[in-house]
What does this fold into?
Amino acid sequence: MFGRTVARYDLLNTLMTGGQDAAWRRATATALGAVDGVMLDLGCGTGALAEALLATGGRVVGLDFSPPMLAVARRRAAGRWDVLAGDALVLPLAEGSVAAAATAFTLRNVVDLPAALAELARVLRPGGRLAVLELSHARGLWRLPLAAHREVLVPLLGRLLSSDPGAYRYLPASLQPFPPAGELAARIAAAGFRDVRWRAWFGGAVALHLADRVGA
Ligand SMILES: C[S@@+](CC[C@H](N)C(=O)[O-])C[C@H]1O[C@@H](n2cnc3c(N)ncnc32)[C@H](O)[C@@H]1O
It folds into this structure.
């Protein structure tokens, strides 16, 4: 499905978020701070987050399992960062080999969230920081307008512009089973992280969780 959306993937992200997605990715990269070592972008897609990570300095590795996404990422990276084919559930990386890890709009899609978090914990070195940028559940007065955005505007933009409109009907559905911010924080902690904290935008519709690998 991700492979079929690749042609206008970045354009649709910009339109669906009013251009805010770039700011959220920059905030994610900034939250990792200066990193001495490899930064992993899990589910790198076309490489938008990897580019933001690269701007903070350090070595970046983007990983994804969709060949069309990987092809775009490789072109975009042009040798400035590494692109790796792999599955979030069985990362092709050694234990403790990553200094920091970030992931944007990916964990909602994995079939086994605890397994993906356990893999992130395994490859991060002790004290290494994790940043998870993901859609979440809006609260209060934000709920109604954001439900309309999710259920009406997003599928409409997908129908008009994407080569796979079905993916943009899947997008709202994919949020339903995903844990709310507090529960996601508890799951991150259970996977082997400490000091889990988060900030949110648009009444909680988008959340950035940060945590540090235990053991430092
Ligand atoms: C919604 S896109 C997000 C892409 C990018 N991170 C961004 O911010 O635009 C989700 C990406 O995660 C990848 N993905 C989903 N499940 C995966 C898995 N189990 N292993 C590796 N990549 C995965 C998809 O191929 C897709 O490129």
Remarks:
- The first helix runs from residue 9 to 17.
- Helices lie at 9-17, 20-32, 48-55, 67-77, 113-123, 143-161, 165-175, 181-190.
- The chain has one domain: 3-139+175-213.
- DSSP finds eight helices and seven strands in the chain.
